[in-house]
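In this supplementary section we document a worked example of the pipeline. Step one takes a protein sequence of length 480 as its only input; no multiple sequence alignment statistics are reported here. Step two produces a three-dimensional model, which step three serialises into structure tokens for compact storage. The input and output of this example are shown verbatim.
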Amino acid sequence: MSDSTYLGMPPFPEAARTALGDTQLRSNLAHATDTIRRKRAAVVAEVDDWEELREAGRAVKERTLRHLDTYLVRLEERVTAAGGQVHWARDGAEAGRIVTELVRATGESEVVKIKSMATQEIELNETLAEAGIAAYETDLAELIVQLGDDHPSHILVPAIHRNRAEIREIFVREMGAYGTPAPDGLTDDPARLAEAARLHLREKFLRAKVGISGANFLVADTGTAVVVESEGNGRMCLTLPETLISVVGIEKIVPSWQDLEVFLQLLPRSSTGERMNPYTSTWTGTTEGDGPSTFHLVLLDGGRSDTLADRIGRQALNCIRCSACLNVCPVYERVGGHAYGSVYPGPIGAILGPQLRGTDTLLDRSLPYASTLCGACYEVCPVKINIPEVLVHLRAQVVDEGRERRVPKAERMAMAAARWVLSDPARLAAAQRTGALGGRLLSRRGRIGRLPGPLSPWSDTRDAPSPARESFRAWWKRTH
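The serialised model returned by step three reads:
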């Protein structure tokens, strides 16, 4: 299995510049996101009260977060009463240790996994591998990523950056090393690729004694965990193993089944463009003779409590992982998910990652700037997360933290110079005249060419028109 992680990923601008040069990646992304956008728009248009549903989803999430402590205690009581065991993890490292110990206690050395953002967030596969435990992904897209020694690049479709020909090559090259090999003569027909995946996974489903999952929702009133999916592989992981371990972020909780009903309408339309999920699996503790005989629920904080304390930033915890914001984002469509250096890419990743992990690295300090602030993400979010507002809020935090570090920055010096110029009309007029003259001298064919020195990165990434020969200030003075 792959031991690759996101550790040490470069800042977003650097990674994005590399991604922009990959024409195949851009073609794959453009085709996939356009298809998902059109499907989503069609099924959303069928719902007369879609905006009311969005508002209901937002209200339920915000009410739950305000009383999260109460609902978490209630959830623990209900899960325990139903025969399950609840474990609390302050961070990813603690969650990894808990899961590793639980698997070791069964005596098994391999597990099957259902697609889970939380387990990717804590890099559980790598933690298990260090303990000699093989974790096999069973979601088709996650299987492609794992066999390709790759990183997920999308919340809903982790292998969105791969086309059919690339997937075929991965299956032919890698499947035999981990189990049933790809059939002879495998083509890149989607049906044949899916059949190859089923054959490869079948032996693992029938052999595995331990399953690991996440959950889309946790219902506090009954202690029920809920997973929605499109393939059925998840249901195999949830029902066949003797032991089931679910790692879930504490923000995934909803108070009641009535509240859950709202999200079961919002999620499939926003994510896969479907009216309902093909598979909706629910389980409450354990039931004799039906499903796993042992159930463990690992509740993960991992920076969520700190995020909850931020009045503006806490909106990110409303996210139901639908990925609608990724599919409409002009930045994501051009650079893909890997440029974000996180399991959470796109607009939601730009606000969720820096809050869960902090802004100690150049990568996390750069993510709030990975946006044009066009607002398309806010318009499609099924729970009305105002992502642009949070992005601006986090940018302010990054600037404030920079001041506290007392680190000299060219940007801070430039802003100080701009403040000096803009605070005096005479200085501004002089700067405009100088800038216009310099711009025209550097212009080529009506566009500003490459600027000298430290200004070159600005001109290298922009196609700016030459300055007008006469500024508005000069025109106004001449005509009035």
